[in-house]
Design a protein that fits this description.
Distance between the termini: 9 Å
Helix content: under 10%
Number of helices: 1
Strand order of the largest sheet: 3-2-7-8-10
Order of helices and strands: EEEEEEEEHEEE
Largest sheet: 5 strands, mixed
Amino acid sequence: MQIRIEAVDLPGRTCGAGPDFPGYSNIHVAVQRRDRRGELLDPHPGDAVSATWTLDCTATPTDAGVDLKGPYIQGRPGGRFIYLSWGEVDEAGSFTMFRRAKLMLDAVDRVTAAAAMRSGGLLARLRLTDACGRPLCAQVRPPLIDWSATSAV
């Protein structure tokens, strides 16, 4: 099965400081590989019009619904998620993470998960700017993300 993440409304390349936020520049976002914090899939600049990632995974039916596993899926059964890592990229191209968003896979309803297993694809659509105009972080669940079944890419 494949998971496709389609993101829009990125916050920009620079994010100014605030009371609880030091501010960052040359911001990029990428999917973080499980157990390899520094291994990132397809970083996109924070001022891109959109960002898209496609992840291969395996889907196994369980009593609770569907368990998804793959190199970019984090967590234990029942609490799996995908990390979108936000970081600054320096002149040498090094990415230094400063925050992450957790796309919670347990938020995919059973009907959508079952349909995705049949069709071969699960689609996530979301905005990457939070209510304060900063990079989206913390746990991401509906209504901040829309999950639907789709055909594999």
